[in-house]
Amino acid sequence: MSRSAIVISMLVPFAVACQAVSPEDAGDTLEKQLHADLKGSAQERDKGDFVVAVPQSVDDGAATTDLNREWERFTRKEGHLERTVKLLNEEFALPRDLSVAYLECGEANAFFDPANDQVGLCYEMLQEIAEVVSARITSESSAADIKAAEKAALGISDAILMHEIGHALISERFWDVPVLGEEEDVVDDFSTLVLIELDRPDAAEATARFWATTDPMSPDWEAYAGVHSLNPQRYANIMCLVYGSNPKKYGHLTNPYKPDHTVKQTFEAVGRDCTGESDYRDGEFDQKITAFYRLIGPWVLPDDPTSTSQPDAI
């Protein structure tokens, strides 16, 4: 048999198979394969909870400096983390407990510790967020401006915490979700989409601007080899999803890197379709929200009609 005949004989079954399976059926088949080992409903798989962890000792991350003690008192008094955890428990099933904590780390950071099934947001990170946001406040700022800054700071801290929760949930310790691409970008998307779905896109938008504020446009070359996208890229990626979720509300906002351009003009100029206005494909938001639910669908709990939690509580 000639080489061309061999190639044709190999391709014919493949072509027939492709004709026999529609894109929709192929997607359904892939989804079944991804979740083949998951039995029962999300409620039946819900064996764990998001749990607030309160550091009891220095080894656990209890505050040791005056500034961090202030953050410790503030976070415990406000009960914000408890409200966040309550809402997450209503939304998602877990195979085991995942503890979530504010704590002292010695640096501005946040993390997922798989050895202890813990997510942490450092007091030092809260301080950095507060300093960046408070820089916008001047002697001429109104009470409304100050309130907006406080809301932005809270939203940024929630987004960074959700980013680390994303690391935990997609890991084999919890949902074991396949990762296509750089994991840091994936969990940025996770954080942004969760906030949008919880009716808190403003928190994601504030986070995009936080990254735009805290990174130069010309980083050292080592930054290009790092696991995180450059902060201007993180701004653009998050903002594309926020804008795509509500073009009328967010399209007119200014681009902090190019103040004479709106968000809408920025993405149109580079041919990036965030909104689904293209004639030949879905917008980036639609693509990612569809993938989001396909991948994590088995872990999303049905709505509880008796729930009293409000999305803006976190």
Whole-number mean pLDDT: 85
End-to-end Cα distance, whole Å, is 68 Å
Structural class: alpha/beta
Number of helices: 13
| Strand line-up across the major sheet | 1-2-4-3
Topology, element by element:
Layout: H1 3-20, H2 23-34, H3 42-45, E1 50-52, H4 66-78, H5 80-91, E2 98-103, E3 110-113, E4 118-122, H6 123-134, H7 143-170, H8 183-197, H9 201-213, H10 231-245, H11 247-250, E5 254-255, E6 258-262, H12 263-269, H13 284-296
Helix pairs in contact: 6-7, 7-8, 7-9, 8-9, 8-10, 9-10, 10-13
Could you give a quick summary of the protein structure above?
With about 325 residues, this protein is of the alpha/beta class. The protein has 13 helices and six strands.
What does this structure look like?
The protein has 13 helices and 6 strands. By secondary structure, the chain is of the alpha/beta class. It has a domain at 177-298. The protein has a 4-stranded mixed beta sheet. A two-stranded antiparallel sheet has the order 5-6. A hairpin with a 4-residue loop joins strand 3 (110-113) and strand 4 (118-122). Helix 8 packs antiparallel against helix 9 and helix 9 (201-213) runs antiparallel to helix 10. The chain is globular, with a radius of gyration of 22 Å. Mean pLDDT is 85; it is low at 6-23.
